[in-house]
Specification:
Blueprint (H helix, E strand, L loop, with lengths): L3 H13 L7 H19 L3 H18 L2 H17 L3 H18 L2 H17 L3 H14 L6 H17 L3 H13 L5 H17 L3 H16 L7 H15 L2 H12 L9 H14 L3 H20 L5 H29 L2 H14 L2 H8 L4 H4 L2 H20 L5 H20 L40 H8 L3 E7 L5 E6 L4 E6 L2 H13 L6 H15 L8 E5 L13 E5 L2 E4 L5 E4 L3 H6 L9 E7 L19 H13 L8 H14 L3 E6 L4 H8 L5 E5 L1 E4 L6 E9 L5 E7 H5 L7 E5 L8 E2 L3 E2 L2 H7 L4 E5 L9 H10 L11 H13 L8 H4 L2 E5 L3
Parallel strand pairs: 1-4, 4-7, 7-18, 8-9, 8-10, 10-14, 14-17
Antiparallel strand pairs: 1-2, 2-3, 5-6, 11-12, 12-13, 15-16, 17-18
Helix pairs in contact: 1-2, 1-4, 2-3, 3-4, 4-5, 4-6, 5-6, 6-7, 6-8, 7-8, 7-21, 8-9, 8-10, 9-10, 10-11, 10-12, 11-12, 12-13, 12-14, 13-14, 14-15, 15-16, 16-17, 16-18, 20-21, 23-24, 27-31, 31-32
């Protein structure tokens, strides 16, 4: 946290020693404003302080005084931060940083970067927070205020501890504690952060020593507002040690104190809930978890709106919701009260892919408000990632840092463009009339079946109808759950803990392409574990997966055995992977476009005769032409031509029987694709190379080779970031290629990658592959489009998931090599249930 007194002292010293053209009366006026602002901020009168500082910043800008303007901005930002106005805090920190850098005011710039780091840490974007803190350390001048330097180091150490990089963090804390310029407050803060970090790595003995020291220092100042930080840390410590009564006493003391230090309330409530549950007071613990969830949702709604920040928020809240779900399930089994089963489902829905829900419910016009710099930054990020995606290796440190910087900068611009979440509830506000709009106090167990965002179970069951079933999973550290929701009601089943389920999934996935006798048996056991006991009448399953379950080849799960042969899941029903119940509701609003857009057979290597050759007039000599050819030939950015993809897309366009636009060869470029997408095609079929980095961290569509500014071939990519900025409302997207559905699974956020990006762009369904597939002429998709044209007898089009299922069954019964699961089981539907 930026310290106002230190800022004021530093500026006063600079103003007093200045020899420039500042008039003495201007210096005195600035000093008077600083003193008054400090008093207001110190007494937490933020609104009055903000008015004064905004006026001071405007006057400093008018007078051409960058030093005083930077100070005002660097004071405004934490004032907004303390009020929970994170977007305004971001604006002022960035403005302070940029203006200070332009004026060569390195200390002011570093202070702004430290504040930004704290803000990013608050929304749990640890990558951006770490970059900002390290950048602050780089630009920090040697003669700057020593107390502020220690604050910067404390922020850096805190981030490293949260990222479990204690080997680098602990020496930083030692450096801070050994510095003679350290204040009592900084000493206590260093011990707080070091102690909490030591708790995370399980070093309870050393954690207790430093946390007790921090508590002792702060107790010497009666009423110290930061005492609650030490109490919170000690409560966590004694909870781990099993000293539950003492832990409860400490967390109760923390909760009644003023909280000006930005410790999110949901963390305090969550700790108290864990203590109460440990004491066997389960009903009280559930009440406290609901307080924590309410606080978490309020905190989430006030957060920075860029998707990158939202995903970080999901990760931070994952543990809280996991514990709350486990508590609701425990109460259900202890009491038999069905309402606790409903509550556990509601809690799961509240956290499930919340960042995607916000992105879909937000303001889609943000792409028109970002500055031109946004697109050039995106281009630079794309250039860095091109080689990394091909090489499939972790980037070297310099490229990793540059990638983090660019992603942070993109997120900053997105957040400042004002991505609002205007409507994140799936149900209209008048639905479920008569039900409570929030969960009532748990001591009054007559709470109604309502969802935090007015998604009621009663209403959702009507949406499902009698032909669909929602199957939602939660894999927790303590307990895992499966909820089955039908028109008749909700059923809850307990599953093994996350790690046990993950072991089974890994075994099945590794053998899914061969299905030997033993692997078929494993697959059938997994099917029974996950889907056993679900009513057979439903032909359409909507499956909300979690964690390792995203690796399951759902179509190839063995549901039964007949005459000694496996009966696959697809032979009985379709399974569409959905983000959650809220996505099922959204699907009713889709108004799809028209036409078929096919993208295939790009130019991927310079040996391709379609690759545009440079004219000799543009080359300095024939020698340079030969050099370019050799460099291109040796480049790792060469991919084989997908010859069959042209025929695949042409055949699919014919079977779809729609007005078609086909982009082939050198026509496959981002500008051409953007122009075609502007026509709002109903179907987008991409047969291309799909690339993913280590652990699926970066994903992209490889469009083809283009000439860079230096004349060398350059791979043109369509990244997940590119796709998320598009508008394809209601479109069906087919990605036919190797591992097009790859991506990393983030806590609570779910599967990240190209499939999610298309959903953010507005797609109603995305068909993608889970593993490598052959360059094929597309018989499966030819069948898919035939079935997609069918109706169910009620003049309604067959849903994409069902059309894909029928096409996969056609392949299974074809009697050709395409009958092998390795071929047809790779394809899966991700959607919003249309």
């Amino acid at each position: 946290m930026i310290r106002y007194f230190a800022l004021a002292a530093a500026l006063a010293l600079a103003l007093a020693s200045s020899v420039d053209s500042r008039h003495p009366s201007r210096i005195l006026a600035a000093k008077h404003l600083m003193d008054k602002a400090y008093d207001l901020l110190n007494s937490q009168q933020y609104s009055k302080a903000i008015q004064l500082l905004e006026k001071g910043a405007a006057e400093a800008r008018r007078d051409g005084d960058p030093l005083f303007e930077s100070w005002c901005l660097n004071s405004l930002a934490p004032a907004y931060f303390s009020m929970g106005e994170y977007r305004l805090a971001l604006d002022h920190y960035i403005e302070a940083r940029d203006r200070a850098l332009q004026a060569g005011l390195r200390e002011q710039a570093a202070l702004a970067m430290t504040g930004l780091s704290s803000l990013y840490m608050h929304v749990f974007d640890t990558t951006s927070a770490l970059y900002a803190a390290r950048r602050a350390r780089e630009v920090w001048p040697a003669n700057a205020n020593p107390e502020d330097r220690l604050g910067m180091l404390l922020q850096l150490g805190r981030i490293l501890m949260v990222r479990n990089e204690s080997a680098e963090a602990l020496p930083i804390f030692s450096e801070v504690l050994a510095d003679p310029a350290i204040s009592d407050q900084q000493e206590a803060e260093a011990m707080d952060q070091a102690g909490l970090g030591l708790l995370r790595i399980g070093d309870l003995e050393h954690a207790e020593a430093v946390l007790n020291n921090a508590f002792r220092i702060r107790r010497l100042t009666p009423g110290h507002p930061n005492l609650l930080v030490a109490e919170y840390g000690l409560a966590e410590l004694h909870l781990l040690r099993g000293n539950n009564e003492l832990a409860l006493h400490l967390i109760d003391a923390a909760l009644v104190r003023p909280n000006p230090v930005r410790v999110p309330l949901h963390l305090l409530y969550g700790t108290r809930a864990r203590v109460l549950r440990r004491l066997g007071r389960t009903l009280e613990a559930m009440e406290e978890y609901l307080h924590a969830v309410d606080a978490a949702e309020e905190w989430r709604n006030r957060g920075l709106s860029a998707d990158q920040f939202r995903i970080g928020t999901d990760a931070l809240l994952d543990q809280l919701y996991d514990e709350a779900i486990a508590t609701a399930v425990q109460l259900y089994h202890e009491s038999g009260d069905r309402r606790y089963a409903v509550l556990s489902w509601q809690l799961n829905e509240a956290i499930r892919a919340a960042s995607l829900r916000y992105a879909l419910g937000g303001d889609r016009d943000w792409t028109r408000r970002v500055p031109a710099e946004y697109w050039t930054t995106l281009e630079r990020l794309r250039h860095i990632e091109t080689g990394l995606l091909i090489l499939r290796q972790d980037p070297p440190p310099d490229q990793a840092e540059e990638s983090a910087r660019l992603r942070m900068h993109l997120a900053e611009m997105e957040a400042r463009a004002g991505i609002h979440s205007a409507n994140i509830s799936a149900a209209p506000s008048n639905e479920g009339a008569g039900e409570s709009t929030h969960l009532t106090h748990m001591k009054n167990v007559s709470f109604a079946e309502s969802f935090f965002h007015r998604i009621s179970l009663t209403h959702f069951r009507k949406v499902l109808g009698n032909s669909r079933t929602l199957i939602a999973f939660h894999l927790g550290q303590e307990v895992s759950c499966r909820w089955v929701v039908t028109q008749e009601g909700l059923d809850l089943k307990m599953l093994p803990p996350k790690q046990e389920v993950a072991t089974i999934v890994t075994k099945v996935r590794s053998n899914s392409d061969t299905l030997r006798a033993e692997s078929a048996a494993d697959s059938r056991r997994l099917y029974g574990l996950l889907f056993g006991g679900i009513p057979e009448r439903s032909k359409g399953w909507l499956v909300a997966l979690d964690g390792p379950l995203y690796d399951i080849p759902l179509p190839a799960l063995v549901a039964d055995e007949q005459d000694g042969q496996p009966v696959f899941m697809i032979e009985r029903r379709s399974a569409e992977v959905v983000p959650g119940a809220w996505a099922v509701e959204d699907a009713r609003r889709f108004v799809p476009g028209s036409g078929f857009l096919g993208i295939a057979d790009g130019v991927y290597n310079v040996a391709d005769s379609r690759y545009p050759k440079p004219s000799l007039s543009n080359l300095r000599s024939l020698g340079s032409a030969l050099l370019c050819s050799r460099v291109a030939a040796e480049s790792s950015l060469q991919l084989p031509r997908l010859i069959a993809s042209r025929r695949e897309v042409e055949e699919c366009a014919h079977r779809a029987a729609k007005r078609s636009t086909l982009l082939m060869g050198a026509e496959v470029t981002r500008p051409a694709i953007s122009a075609a997408l502007a026509q709002n095609p109903e179907i987008i079929h991409i047969a291309a190379h799909f690339l993913s980095g280590p652990s699926g961290r970066n994903t992209a569509v490889a469009l083809g080779l283009a000439r860079g500014r230096d004349g060398r071939p350059q791979l043109d990519l369509l990244t997940a970031e590119d796709i998320a900025g598009l508008r394809v409302p209601g479109s069906i997207v087919v990605m036919s290629g190797c591992s097009s559905g790859a991506g990393r699974v983030a806590p609570a956020a779910g599967l990240l990658g190209l499939s999610r990006a298309w959903l953010v762009a507005g797609a109603s369904a995305v068909i993608a592959t889970q593993w490598a597939t052959p360059d094929d002429t597309g018989e499966l998709f030819a069948k898919f489009y035939e079935h997609l044209r069918d109706s169910d007898g009620l003049d309604r089009r067959i849903p994409p998931a069902e059309a894909l299922r029928r096409a996969q069954v056609d392949m299974l019964r074809s009697g050709t090599w395409r009958a092998e699961p390795a071929y047809w089981a790779a394809y899966q539907t991700f959607g919003r249930s249309n």
